[in-house]
Amino acid sequence: MDVRDAPSQIFGAVNRDARHWQILALSGLFLISILTTDYGARPMHLVSALAGTMTAQIIGTAIVGGRFEWKSAAITSLSLTILMRAVAPWMWFVAGLIGIGLKFAVRYNGKHIFNPACIAIVAMCLLFDRDVWVSPGQWGQAPLLLGWAAAAAALVLSSAKRLDIALAFFGTFAAILIGRALWLGDPMSIPMHQLSTGTLLVFTFFMITDPRSTPDSRIGRILFAALVAILSAWFIIVPNVLAAPIMALAALSFLTPIIDRVLPADRFQWGKPSKSKEGRIHETQTPGRSGDARPQLARL
Amino acid sequence: MKLRHLAGAAMLGLSSLAFSAPASAFCGFFVAKADTDLFNDASKVALVRDGDRTVITMASNFRGDVEEFAMVIPVVDVPEEEQINVANPGLIDHLDQYTAPRLVEYHDENPCDMRRYRETMAMSAGPVPEPAPVAMEEAEDLGVTIEAEYEVGEYDILILSAEESDGLITWLNANGYKIPDGAEEVVGSYLKQDMKFFVAKVNLERHDGSAFLRPIQVAYEHEDFMLPIRLGTVNADGKQELFVFAMTRKGRVETLNYKTVKLPSDMDVPIFVKDEFGDFYKDMFAHQVDKHDGKAVFTEYAWDMSWCDPCAAEPLSRSQLRELGVMWLDEAGNEPQTRPGWGGPEPVDVFVTRLHVRYDGETFPEDLTFQVTGDRQNYQGRYVLRHPWRGDFDQCEEARDYADTLVDRWDREAENLVKLTGWDEDEIKQKMADGGYSASSIDVEPKPKKPWWQKLWGNG
Question: For B365, which of A85, A190, A240 is closest by C-beta distance?
């Protein structure tokens, strides 16, 4: 083995599964949160979230069958740690259990309905009132440019197919906020400020882009993303709902199976065969239960 | 003057009121007092929030002719007269003092004996008062509707709605509310969002001529938990200063649309800071604002209001809290509790957060929106002075070691001060040396620094 090949080999190994890029990008955001915020993520919260998601993943796998998969659960843990704030560490554990638990429990036609981290945060906010919250302002703006760049890069590298939903969501959301500012006569610095929060970044690139809980067809995805953006903007402008995009996504998740029925398309599967630079095919798809070819995994 | 106040007050109108600070309420030993003019034109707002219920108390350091006082605040609804009140000016001052950053003193004992300590503290005191009278003109048909008209305390209050910002601004200017140029867009934006304008002036006939104006309070119920600051950024009068004292039964309050950070705290600083605590606090705040590019909201205090440690001022009494609008105090489950055999303040189910914001239109383009969190971790801005023991360092072995630690400690204190305030390190060290806090002043030979590996295994 030639040492000079090491970088491309590492790249190849990471690139074998889209979720590797996501784990890397989310880990970076987690570090930014730890290092630059006073009221942000803490390592203990990640440990707790990992314990919760892995526990649910083990139990779910045991019941449903199939191979134990840690990657999606790790992504959910990172998302929960980055986005959710709570008064006690055990709450991330519970959130992890709920998120992954619902991934196994609430399914329609072989797809889970809810994005695990999203539904976990919504459920925790409803269960624990103000003891669980989301801090959209906690990122400040300095590290955000870096964050957007890294997140976009991760998304492009991982599954360009899902860039459509990120762009559709962000474009619609930005258009509404900018349009509103124009109508009100507000300076553009206001919508720009509203669009530059870390929570929105994580949501756009790592939550609504979840290929396993969003529509299969491109038109369906764009429609779905636009609807989530419209509801998010309405939540912010009218009733001032906290964590608006996350709430909007959870509220509209029921639309995915409906859109899939009206606009059917091939189902997304993690780790579809992809060619490495050497031309070899890496097969990382997780086999489902015998007699059920549907993959059991989801991202986030 | 008027203009500036209006803007400062703007939104919250916070323009005016200032109060004298009774220096009597320290439970510790008063060692230093910050300049009362620390933050000129600071607006102070107390927000009591429970569910959708909010009571806002607005005060600011209005200096000048009471006649010139004017307050213009966008509001979401037309309040009833009973929803408006004027508060005792001492309330906000007390709240300010209770939550102020504090200086704590410790005295080293003879190293040959046991060490004991004594605490003292200092705090930034409230501002000084002033006030005066006001006049009012008739409303005109400029598309401006007077939705309500109230006389509350020394204030004449109008709730206005309007079709166009131009008409409203013309009317306001004609009636003695000097609206700064460039306010049309902001006013127009609020009008399009169907907001009303709450405007207040002082009625000279009902004003008792005292040296201050009392804070205005409004109680309302709305899902929005926000503070309109945009009018305050309209004029180019530099940065505005705002203190928010948020009280909830749940926990800490933070800003949703801006980064909330903690003011650095719990650091040892040189003794001379005691004599210039005001400058220290002011420069530290300015330095920290710069470090965050002017875009952060600073938490200066977050604490359960049943107690304090150390206390910069006594916790507020139940009646004071009630006056500030803590509406749940008398509701079921919150009856006064008595702690047998405990002479301290009465426990109350109130958590206060003191937020300090320095803003302008560029760094804070949007109004502040808040959320109540369940976080009840206590935090305070606290700075520590350690007075060295003065005596014969040759008295015992421990004393000689102690003298060595002093020199290290002073270096650390100087570094801390640089980090906090951005002050020049050489000047700090010179000031310390002048006060007798240097190696030469205690006859300790400045030792060459030990190599790091000696410290590593403690065998140096």
Answer: A190
